[in-house]
Write a sequence for this structure.
DNA sequence: GCTATTTTAGACCAAATGTACTAAATTTTT
DNA sequence: AAAAATTTAGTACATTTGGTCTAAAATAGC
């Protein structure tokens, strides 16, 4: 019996992606669905609630991806798969990334959750890098915090490559996703050892 | 006699920075200035015209900076000064960067100009890197396009560090600007030669 | 079948926004 | 000083939006 609720989320999701969060009103979503706006309000009191529900979908997709992509012995391969999958999810919900600042500004609760998740992601990268160093794939730091800064760059790139692509890229979605997943991997390249670079080349030839 | 026009730009600039472009209407700017909204419209027909005028200010500030910061023999030092100055300008007009995707979407002409300017910036970085390689400050590429990708990362970071800071940073403006200017420089670090890294350390100790 | 609950629609309101039109006030030009 | 231009304000209108209230329709539970 929640067919309506699901349809609302689908339509909101689509319109947000097409027109941006700010340009889509409750009434517009309702009109697109050909239901009354009061009906929509019955299910979601505000646009914020819609965004929160869609954010929940993003999290669930991310958790599902995390379970699928088992980080195997080859760190770079796992990173590559996880990045491609993660970037695909972000692209599917691109309105969220493009309006990220706006959404975080409007919704303190979501903002807080987002910061927590980023913290976890950061620690994950930290672990991954430490393992890669142990395995001789990445070099040691030249100065303290060097990898902490790399992780910051990873975060900013991950958060905003979609916004950048909205301005600079005209290719089809899959190409854009692959290009930027590759670009993220390139951030790691200069830190790789000879052994690491070899693994990197093997990986690229395989895909 | 263009006092009004200037006051309008100042107030629009301030309100855009404080509340974001979407949340500031012609009428709100007029109300803040305590002039009639029709008077404001007389000077600027639409919000787009206001944004274009402010963008022109950004360009003029950037040109002025370019003339001041002479790229001396020390490539890293020039880069550091230019980055700090440029990032300060971007921060002064942070509404433009935070609403970048929105603005580019709404104004095809501005979008086109923006792409042209980015092209010039890209070539500037390319020249700078080539010189740094000749001077033995940066290493040769390990694979083709390696530095082209670095420049892409520089572009994305430059475009969106302010958006990132709006979400993650709570420090005062000057600290945020310096931190991110430093982060941009860090993108170069792993490509530096031993000689380049030495120059980099000298530079950081000086500032 | 009847009742209670959930879902849906319609009417209405107040605020904000862009826009157009008119006219007054001010400044500039002659 | 008079005429022409510019700048400024006031009014009014249509649209959009979020929001409330009421009631009808559909569904579920008994």
């Amino acid at each position: 019996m929640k067919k309506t609720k699901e349809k609302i989320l689908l339509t909101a999701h689509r319109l947000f992606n097409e027109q941006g969060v700010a340009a889509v009103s409750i009434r517009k979503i309702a009109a697109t669905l050909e239901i009354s706006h009061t009906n929509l309000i019955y299910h979601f009191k505000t646009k914020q609630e819609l965004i929160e529900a869609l954010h929940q979908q993003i999290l669930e997709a991310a958790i599902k991806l995390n379970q699928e992509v088992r980080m195997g012995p080859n760190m770079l391969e796992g990173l590559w798969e996880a990045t491609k999958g993660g970037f695909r999810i972000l692209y599917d919900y691109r309105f969220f990334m493009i309006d990220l600042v706006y959404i975080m500004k409007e919704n303190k609760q979501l903002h807080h959750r987002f910061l927590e998740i980023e913290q976890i992601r950061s620690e994950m990268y930290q672990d991954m890098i430490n393992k890669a160093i142990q395995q001789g794939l990445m070099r040691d730091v030249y100065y303290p915090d060097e990898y902490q800064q790399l992780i910051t760059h990873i975060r900013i790139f991950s958060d905003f490559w979609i916004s950048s692509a909205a301005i600079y890229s005209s290719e089809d979605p899959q190409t854009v996703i692959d290009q930027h997943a590759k670009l993220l991997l390139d951030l790691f390249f200069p830190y790789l050892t000879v052994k690491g670079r070899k693994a990197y080349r093997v990986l690229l030839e395989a895909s």
Summary: The radius of gyration of chain B is 20 Å. Chain B has a mean pLDDT of 95.
